[in-house]
Amino acid sequence: MSEHHDHSHAVVTEENSKKLMVALGLTTTFLIVEVVAAFETIPNSV
Known about the structure:
Blueprint: H1 14-40
Protein name: Cation transporter
Transmembrane segments: 20-39
Organism: Psychrobacter glaciei
């Protein structure tokens, strides 16, 4: 059932790795900001 594919797979380069790390850093930063903001908006009436 294995088929032969006539395409190459992406090669990880230094440039791609840096771009992925920047994207991961931005995503993580936004996640942390959203979690902190969520806890800041919880009413203190409990």
